[in-house]
Design goal:
Layout: E1 2-7, E2 12-18, E3 21-28, H1 33-47, E4 57-61, E5 77-79, H2 82-94, E6 98-104, E7 108-114, E8 118-124, H3 128-138, H4 144-151, E9 161-162, H5 163-166, E10 179-181, H6 192-217, E11 222-226, H7 233-246, E12 249-251, H8 259-266
Parallel strand pairs: 1-4, 4-5, 6-11, 11-12
Antiparallel strand pairs: 1-2, 2-3, 6-7, 7-8, 9-10
Helix pairs in contact: 2-8, 3-6, 4-6, 6-7
Length: 269
């Protein structure tokens, strides 16, 4: 069994791979990379009723991987760069040999993956970290679940300037409800819930647009969304709205948040 561990800036994800398939996924949180990695490994072993002797190899990736330079519990431990891991994980989840991937974490990376080559097309510093940071300043909370619960009942028309606010008709292929300017209206009567939705909407619109441009530059009709941000239901809705405008499909596969760890586990299987 090969264990892939993705040590991120906030969450560590680990998967167990065997015979080219993923058989177990877990998440942990800890204050340092070593505790995260060993905790994730232990959680997989205990929850799967395995012995540590069943683990043939550990593959580390993610930002926290730089802190681990020795074997873990005497098990052969290698590293793989995060971009390659995302590409391999994305191909596994999509069941395709070529795919454009938008990996939404603290920031966002856009990757083109194929059997021949994995290419980092670019990305943006906009991501989950942006939502947390802006919410800390504007809403005085950093609890992601609380932010999303507020956003779920927010009203964008109180914070965003829409095309209908400046024109009696749509512009080009954009309809009257399309955003003309994020936070461009910002009424004095806007509630915290409206601001929360405005923050989430802005982040996912930016991610959606750079993903669309990346896909179109590669003549692709689909973008696979991975990373923790792929599970955000409000974000998914925003990306689907962009999909309708630009005719680029966004896919949200099961276990998408584990894509990087999956790619690590499968890299040497």
């Amino acid at each position: 069994m090969i264990i892939g561990i993705d040590i991120g800036s906030t969450t560590t994800k680990a998967v167990a791979g065997e015979g080219g398939f993923i058989v177990k996924t877990v998440k942990t949180k800890a204050s340092d990379a070593v505790t995260s990695a060993t905790g994730a490994l232990g959680k997989i072993i205990i929850e799967s009723n395995l012995s540590i002797s069943c683990v043939e190899k550990i593959i580390i990736t993610g930002a926290g991987g730089v802190m681990i330079n020795n074997e873990i519990f005497g098990i052969t431990t290698h590293k793989i760069d995060e971009i390659t891991a995302i590409g391999l994980g994305g191909m596994y989840l999509s069941k395709r040999d070529k795919v454009i991937i938008s990996n939404i974490g603290t920031g966002t990376s856009i990757i083109e993956a194929s059997k021949e080559k994995i290419t980092h097309l670019g990305g943006t510093g906009i991501g989950g970290g942006t939502i947390i940071g802006l919410s800390k300043e504007l809403l005085h909370t950093t609890t992601f679940e609380h932010i999303l619960s507020m956003a779920d009942i927010g009203d964008l028309t109180n914070v965003d300037l829409l095309i209908e606010d400046i024109s009696d008709s749509g512009i080009s292929f954009l309809n009257k409800k399309s955003t003309a300017s994020n936070f461009g209206k910002m009424l004095d009567t806007a509630k915290r819930e409206d601001v929360a939705l405005g923050i989430v909407n802005m982040v996912y619109q930016v991610i959606g647009m750079i993903s669309v441009f990346a896909a179109k530059s590669r003549d692709a009709s689909c973008v696979l969304v991975t990373g923790n941000g792929s599970r955000n239901l409000i974000g998914q809705k925003i990306l689907r709205e962009i999909s309708e405008l630009y005719k680029i499909e966004f896919e949200f596969p099961a276990d998408a948040e584990y894509a990087t760890a999956i790619g690590a586990a499968l890299s040497e299987s």
